[in-house]
Specification:
This protein is α+β, with helices and mostly antiparallel strands. It has a domain of 184 residues. It is built from twelve helices and ten strands. It has a six-stranded antiparallel β-sheet with strand order 1-5-6-3-2-4, with helices on one face. α5 runs antiparallel to α7.
Length: 271
């Protein structure tokens, strides 16, 4: 590990030092509003990232297909490299009071072994699976894919051998900064799960709870009813927080697991 990585890890361990830097991370994402710049910035380059939410909404259990989180279990079982962050850096930096700080990101692939040891630990597949279950039991929404920003954050060369699994809460996740990109670019970098549909039923009372918990601000109230814009990334939080159970999430693609695995495997070698 380089001296630069050691310094970065030291800063990340000290909340008072890391918090300003974490908030400043959003600034480059404002370039997403500028056509040419958003196409060349490595964090927003369509060729360097593909990230997808795997909703954990309970209504999906009634459908005769595997749950989305099983995609991560498949990766864990196939990869010989598993590294877990000791804490969630986003929740720690933002001093999150609503979700556990000790459930950090999971990384796979050979490049994961370059994570700073001061803030991470290598584990075997069974422990990685237990970590996944712990995150799901806590109600955190998993996100999986090739995240170019992670190479920058941990000073790891981008050799396309780093697979990221983030366990996101609705208040602190850094992925919210992608809301500054237009929907057409989001569909390439941050596509919704293949075959995922979200429908607001007539049970909607227009209370706005879903909009308050939407990390990309993709929900507005129109004529007393919630409406999702094209910026929706399919995280499923709207259904989770709706007090009237007025949001229905379905998967219409029986082959969605194969499709998402194929898409991500084209960008990252995790074995």
């Amino acid at each position: 590990m380089s001296l630069k990585q050691s310094f970065v890890a030291w800063v990340m361990q000290h909340k008072s030092l890391f918090r300003p830097g974490h908030r400043a991370i959003e600034w480059p994402f404002f370039l997403g509003h500028i056509p040419l710049l958003r196409d060349i910035h490595p964090w927003m380059d369509r060729r360097k990232s593909t990230i997808t939410y795997l909703p954990i909404n309970e209504t999906l259990r009634s459908q005769s297909i595997p749950m989305p989180a099983e995609v991560i279990a498949a990766y864990i079982e196939q990869s010989p490299y598993h590294v877990i962050m000791n804490r969630c850096l986003c929740r720690t930096a933002r001093d999150c009071q609503d979700h556990p700080l000790n459930i950090g990101c999971l990384f796979m692939g050979e490049s994961a072994l370059q994570m700073p040891p001061q803030i991470s630990r290598r584990v075997d597949a069974p422990e990685a699976l237990r970590h996944l279950e712990k995150a799901l039991d806590a109600g955190l929404v998993p996100l999986v894919g090739k995240v170019r920003f992670d190479n920058f954050a941990f000073l790891i060369p981008d050799e396309k051998k780093l697979l990221s699994v983030c366990f996101c809460c609705p208040c602190c996740c850094m992925m919210a900064y992608y809301r500054h990109l237009p929907p057409d670019q989001l569909d390439t970098i941050f596509p919704r799960l293949e075959g995922l549909t979200i429908e607001v039923t007539d049970d909607c009372q227009g209370c706005g709870t879903c909009a308050q918990n939407c990390f990309v601000k993709a929900i507005t109230m129109e004529n007393g009813k919630a409406v999702h814009s094209a910026a929706c990334r399919g995280c499923g939080r709207c259904a989770r927080f709706c007090p009237n159970q007025a949001v229905r999430i379905t998967l219409t693609n029986p082959d969605y697991q194969e499709d998402v695995l194929r898409r991500i495997n084209d960008r990252v070698d995790f074995k």
